[in-house]
């Protein structure tokens, strides 16, 4: 029972947010004359072809043609371009993506540094956009007309001015071609599959251009079906989810046809205008990160039956329901009857994740959760024992159906309407994050906003070996000082960070992505030959934990939970050192329930589990514990009346609220660079890919302390509106030099706009009305993600520290505004829900909590 429960923030007043900074272009563009000369041949060819009719246009797969996506590659961005596209009848906007290219004589970033201001930055890539649009014949004619008028220096007309900017910033204009449709990871996947099964068809996912017209979508599907029929392939499954602009097909492509694609021959799938991407089949896998603990069984404890409605869901493999740690604690919902296909001895991953959510790491001795856990199986085990989603259907459809069933949809009653926490401890090893938001991540973002769900998603485990250039052989690595070994491993991870990224759907904007922290509670580590603990710092990420950043360089993973003190083993030694991650054995991990691997029917076996899956299960447990604390009436909770639609946002804010960087950022900044300390934003951003917002202290999120008060609030805001909070400050901190801190966290679920570069419809921030140094004697702490990074996701989280003796202003109140602004802009008008947590803490034993609590009870005179 908490001695000092979390406090409620005072009711806010409506507020108008201050205008943000005006953005300005810092890119040098070529002159209009140079642009006209460069692109005149492209438009002249289009003019000649239009004069002879559309048939000739379609015959050239490399030319601009009706119903063929045009790529406008530009430097910078064009304001209001999408509005201008809408004015051109028959020009359908398809998507926009960020890009960049090397500076040249036409385009370059202009230097804004004091010593070299105004010069070209030849060392910096030029940021740009790809605007993608599909024209019909009339739209091509109007596009040509706009070009001609721009070339003559004539006004383009009301609403068409952005086309003038587009022509002036144009780097390239071309059709969407095979090099766009077939990414490098797809080519690598096809080669591997051809080598593994030379004569077998290759299962591939086709993502089609999403059309607003249902008729047009069906035409596209029939066109692709015809191509596959003629090639001897087949369509296994198809899915359309309009809310996330997704149209996908799961297909088998004949082996010989795949070889033609690899040879870059002009076969129909490579040049089909309806195809956006050809990708490896998305399959969510349970990583093989669990090892039996020989002879280990759970200790006997009094059985506390689970009761009430579930608030947490596990989408995973089939668990061992009768296990002594899980019996009477699960609500299993298995409409696909995956239990019938899941051997009891292979129900490993779902069993471990359910155990970790319900009991935590057994080595920590935590109490079981009081509510049952809703479990929807979505994985089965293959012949090798690895659990995976079904291979006969698109995984995005599997997850979509699971959530719709859980929360209810038209004509179907909700199976678990009270759930708002969803654990997804799986990742797609075939879809490492490469800059674009994957369809599955888009789905999670949409479902988060639609149903008020907090998805907790594992960052993903990277199993590839790691080269450590600082050491020549294993012996010198073993004998090195812990500090030297730690720096060498982090340096090696940083050198290949782009190959060790988070796995889909971990880039989800609205989800909390969980990384694996190098920590566990194993009491006696039984050594293993050629296995070494790489880190002395238990707040660093495990070597296998997928690294950030996320989309538009947002902070990902968000937070880190224990994933076991992973050890490394030698792969190659002498003339260079290559290592891989050891199996847990008795070296490291989190103790959890496990099936009987010997097949003897025992229901009390446990095993050591490790990695980001396990860390995510602990994060889900922590979210559950936070909610239980908020609803603890006997414990004196002051937040019992939170409306259910705010549960997920409030818990999300509190899960992140206590996260901190723990002193390793200076080492990370030195390793990740840049070396110039004046580029502190880049240094902090590069460091945050390893530690996100940091490691949370969940005990601090559950209750306050004598010298620490956490205040919690929630609300909803329309874009361009704000809420102003007046937070009473404790008198004990006025005019004293005792160190103190202020932490502010705002979390929300943004609607998203698929296909648009902005993607996130709204952003939220919180800012004091007066500089914190004047109000509380604190300044923004340097050891945290940089301010621009903090503002890119769906969590705003900042710390302030200081010891300045200041007189209180505004009658001893901290005036804080939460405001909501458009980013990509809402598709449909409506408010956005948020949760907010604010903590004021002293580093000395001052009565912060009591003084704030007393002031909250005092009503100002009428």
The CATH topology of the largest domain turns out to be Rossmann fold
How many H/I helices? 23
CATH arch. level architecture of the largest domain: 3-Layer(aba) Sandwich
Helix-and-strand structural type: alpha+beta
Number of domains: 5
CATH superfamily caption of the largest domain: Peptidase S8/S53 domain
Distance between the termini: 36 Å
β-strand percent reads 15-25%
Given as residue ranges, the uncertain stretches (5+ residues, pLDDT < 50) are: none
Task: Please describe the biggest sheet, giving its number of strands, its sense, and whether it closes into a barrel.
Answer: 8 strands, mixed
CATH top level assignment of the largest domain: Alpha Beta
Radius of gyration: 28 Å
Total count of strands: 38
Shape: globular
- Helix fraction, binned, reads 25-40%
- Kindly state the mean pLDDT as a whole number? 92
Q: What do these coordinates show?
A:
The mean pLDDT is 92. Helix content is 27%, strand content 24%. The strands form nine sheets. Strands 15, 16, 17, 18, 19, 21, 24 and 26 form an eight-stranded mixed beta sheet that branches. Strands 1-31-38-33-36-35 form a six-stranded mixed beta sheet. The protein is built from 23 helices and 38 strands. The protein is α+β, with helices and mostly antiparallel strands and 862 residues long. The chain has five domains: 27-176; 180-280, Peptidase S8 propeptide/proteinase inhibitor I9 (Alpha-Beta Plaits, 2-Layer Sandwich); 290-299 and 309-630, Peptidase S8/S53 domain (Rossmann fold), CATH 3.40.50.200; 661-694, no CATH class; 702-862. The chain is globular and about 80 Å long.
